[in-house]
Input
Amino acid sequence: MDVFGFLNLNELALGLSNLSMFPCFDIAHYIISVMSLREQPGALEVSQRSPFACWFSSMLYCFGGAVLSALMMADAPVTPLTNTSNLLLASLMWYLVFYCPLDAVYSLASVFPVRLVLTAMKEVTRTWKVLGGVTQAGRKYKDGLFVMIAVGWAKGAGGGLLRNFEQLVRGVWKPETNELLKMTYPTKVTLLGSVVFSLQQCHFLPIQTHHLIFIYTLFIVTNKTQMMLLGSSSYPFSAVETLLYKTLFVRPLTFSPLTDPTPSRCSSPNHNKPKAKDQKPSDTNEPDQTKPKDTETSKKMD
Output
């Protein structure tokens, strides 16, 4: 893009696209994922009662996207676990977060500046997951736009999409936490990235891949850090999102094709009003003239 050449950002975009996620960024991703599990209600009790269930839940948090995308691509769900280095590294982070002596690792990672940096590094890995899922689906299904979007979304936000299954592992069942019913920020922003990268891979967006990687990474890192600094857990564009949802999906019918548009006699405004001859004397404000003697006596009394 001419903007990148004008601002001398081409080298920075190329360097970001060639950045290796292992081991530093992967460590940040595993630590934040396991910390998110630990902060769930009842997770500490499960870690003391059944360490294996706690470990399995942690692996779903760390590799849920890869497992879900493998299932969608008709691959073995254990394929992501064949990378021994990543599996051992994630298991080590799980042990340190849950069982480190004096709870040192979790206490250190919970310090706000440290957690802010780790969360920003985890958001960087999200870009590579989404792009990896879109590219993987594009190699198998050329020009399959919706398949690419679905696989990229699953690989980037699979941990949240598999949350109900992960809760069953810990003995919890909360169907109201389904991500499809109420999407959280990671699920929304991952879907946005999957759509953008799929359009770029199908040549609907005239932009190079490393430029799009730079723009999307800068977008999600900036939004996430801003949310943490402001202490907010909601999507920063919820007002625009609500307006768009109401515009597209909430359209009440102002008429019915089965009804007669012309007003009928029964719907006339004067239909329910009693006629003058049917009105009782008490219904009117005028005095009753049927008995003039009574009216004269009442006037004398007044």
Remarks:
- The chain has a mean pLDDT of 83.
- Residues 112-140 form the longest helix (29 residues).
- The chain is about 65% helix and 0% strand.
- Residues 149 and 194 are 5 Å apart (CA to CA).
